[in-house]
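Why does residue order matter? Because the sequence determines the fold. Keep that principle in mind as you read this record.
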Amino acid sequence: MKKIIVNDAFQQNYVYFLTEKVGSNYDPDFRPELSPKQLLELGVFGGKYFSDYPKEFPKDWFINAKLSLEKNPNVNYFKVNASQSLLFWKKKGWIHPNDPRGWFQWYCRYYMGRRSIDDERQIKRWKAMRRHVTQLKHNCAKGDLSCRPRQRQALLHWAYDSRKL
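Structure:
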């Protein structure tokens, strides 16, 4: 078990423990198709999400990451804006105090081996995104990446590889 202490723009002296091996021992209902590093390299959240390079995550995640100091849709894989603001997420009640940046922060920490009281809720939210996979399959020709780019980008944000649909 490894102890992590977070001191960044969003959290001060937040402590958590890594109790699982990196990228393993997931809940059986949680099967993300892309790792956090892959998502950062593809381009997600307009590049803004981790533009401060949080020290709690491996440096190699950021070597080829597409980041931007300002939210920039052109940094996204599908070159579209497909996310709401952090303020919107807070108003919806989607932000847990342990992960003040939201779902992707939760996923990064889960991927690294943290397990928390918010896992069940976040996995349910991840599973709910599956409806967008179904919509793409019903409305787009397989491999037509120009079909529904916002929906495809949103799926990338949730670690579904929408490039394969």
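The longest helix spans residues 103-112.
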